[in-house]
Every structure is written in structure tokens, then in C-alpha cells.
Amino acid sequence: MNLVVALIACIFAQGVPRRAAHVHSFSNLPIGNVLAIHLQSGSFNQDSIHFNFRRKPQAMVGIDGVLSEEKGPQILPTLTLSDVDVDGLDNLLNFYRNLKNGCNTTADTITITEYRGDSVVATETFIDRSCSMCEANGMLTLYALLDRATAMKEATPR
Predict the structure, then answer these.
(1) Domain for residue 128, yes or no?
(2) Element spanning 6, H or E
(3) What is the pLDDT of residues 93-113, one digit of tens each?
(4) Which tens digits make up the pLDDT trace of 54-98?
(5) Is residue 11 part of a domain?
(6) Higher pLDDT, 103 or 36
(7) Phi and psi of 58, rounded to 5°?
(8) What is the pLDDT of residue 1?
(9) What's the domain range around 74?
């Protein structure tokens, strides 16, 4: 009997298992914090894209590096985002958090790490095999941000 009581006491002393911390949503990100997003595309060309989202107090996203076999490393301009854009990114984050297992043979791996200065606040990783993001309304995809920044760079006189 004492063994059972000891086991129960041990379980309660350790507490209830805690869920891993989530990154803040884009709209609730504290000023000064950064969401660093790494997208590893599972498509045939294996693109690797790095985004940095911050509020200063205006929402901005910088695309620090695009590495593809076709074009090599690229640096793209920083985009200023509207409130509608930020809501679309929140919808994208909710999509990833509620992602069901897909059956597509290619997958995108998305890692979002929130930083406060040099300290990591939280990290979330998602693997998207769904191919259903293309059908969802109200989301701003990382690929759409990439397309905007690429168009902005191409429109800039050299």
C-alpha cells in the first residue's frame, strides 16, 4: 500500500505534463520579438528559404536568404505588411497547427522560432504533406510573400 501512495505522490510532485510552448501569433508578437521562419521545400528543387517577421511597430518581413539549385543564394527586399496580411499569416499558422497528415510524396518543413533578443522563446515545427494550402481562403502563404519580394526586387532599377 505504501508503494502505491509513494507512486501517486511522485506523479503529483512532477505535475501534469506541460504542452510545449507555442510561438506567439503574428498579430500578438510582442514588439522587439522576432519570428524566424525556415521553410525547406520538399519540391523537386529543394529550396531553402529564411523569413524574419517583426513588428516595429509596423509589421515587416525580411527574406534573408533563398537558396535554390536553379538561382543560388539570393537576398530579397523587406516587405511592409498590412493588417490583412498579418491576419492571413495568423490563419496560416492556425492551418499548420491543425494540419492533418497528408499523403503527398513531397513535403514542406516549416520551423518557426520566436526570439527575444538572443533568447529562444519557443519553437514549432510543421511538416506539410497536404497540398491543401492552395485551396484555403484567408491565408497568406510564405510562397506568396516570396513572390511579392521577388517581384519587388525585379521592379527595382539597378
Answers:
(1) yes
(2) helix 2-14
(3) 999 998 877 666 678 899 999
(4) 988 889 999 876 666 666 677 788 999 999 999 999 999 999 998
(5) no
(6) 36
(7) -75, 145
(8) 56
(9) 21-155
Residue-level pLDDT at 13: 46
Q: Which three cell numbers stand for residue 53?
A: 517577421
Check whether the bond before 73 is cis (ω within 30° of 0). Answer: no
Calculate the alpha carbon distances from 7 to 1, 14, 18, 82, 98 in Å.
10, 11, 19, 54, 35
Measured CA to CA, the distance from residue 59 to residue 103 in angstroms comes to: 34
Residue listed under C-alpha cell 494550402:
133
Asked whether residue 100 is domain-assigned, the answer is yes
| 70 or 115: which leads in pLDDT | 115
Q: How many domains does the chain have?
A: 1
Model's pTM, two decimal places?
0.79
Q: Give phi and psi for 154, each to the nearest 5.
A: -70, -30
What lies within 8 Å, CB to CB, of 80 at 6+ separation is 58, 59, 60
Q: Would you say residue 9 lies in a domain?
A: no
- Give the whole-angstrom CA distance, residue 57 versus residue 80: 11
What b/e sequence results for 44-53 when a residue is b if at least 16 CB atoms lie within 10 Å of its CB, and e otherwise?
A: eeebebebeb
Half-sphere CA count of 41, side-chain side, radius 13 A: 16
Whether the CB-CB separation of 23 and 122 falls below 8 Å is answered with: yes
Q: Which pLDDT value is given to residue 10? A: 44
